[in-house]
Amino acid sequence: MDTANRQGRAEGTSARERLLDAAYAEVVSGGWSDRRMVDIAAVARVSRQTLYNVFGSKEGLLQAVVVREVNALLDRVVRLLEEEGEDPPHAVSRATRLVLLSARDNPLLRAVVTGDHGLLPVLTTRAEPLLDVLGERITALLGERYPELAGFAAEAAADVALRLTVSYSLQPIDPDEAARRVETVVHGMLTVGR
């Protein structure tokens, strides 16, 4: 969602959404590391205390912005997987390609991966909250879409595919090549796991 749309819908949105929109705009503009919480609260028309009550910290706010954006991306992944046939490794490959292209093209994801040095830990050293949310969602999706997979196989495949995809987004290679590699790994895991 672009900044104009975010600002245009500010009226009638919750304080939480206005804070997420304000933080999104700061990340995309490249001003995140210099921005104070009081400034973000002012843009969102809430008190600084409300911001802290909702997100706890600047890092908590950043995590929430990234999770919201990645959840929107996962909605696209879900639609893609619903269109796929019955081959989980190939479906994961197509999803990997979609994610890598989005990491390159999405302003927020691109800013996290290539921009402000204060943002990268969201995907690296402090990525656990994000990986937990994504891993649970991908595991559930694989389990629903491919019920023949054992619970552990779906969870392991989701975890490895997710971590490989994050790794490839941080050190980009051709999205098609990365997707083939992830497909090979997931195929091997699911073959052994049966």
UniProtKB/TrEMBL annotation:
The UniProt record lists the keyword Zinc: no
GO molecular function terms noted in the UniProt entry: DNA-binding transcription factor activity; transcription cis-regulatory region binding
Coiled-coil regions listed in the entry: none
DNA-binding residues: 36-55
Keyword Membrane: no
Keywords linked to the UniProt accession: DNA-binding
Highest rank taxon of the organism: Bacteria
Organism: Nocardiopsis alborubida
Pfam families linked to this entry: TetR_C_35, TetR_N
Every HTH tetR-type domain range: 13-73
Protein's UniProt name: TetR/AcrR family transcriptional regulator
SUPFAM superfamilies for the chain: Homeodomain-like
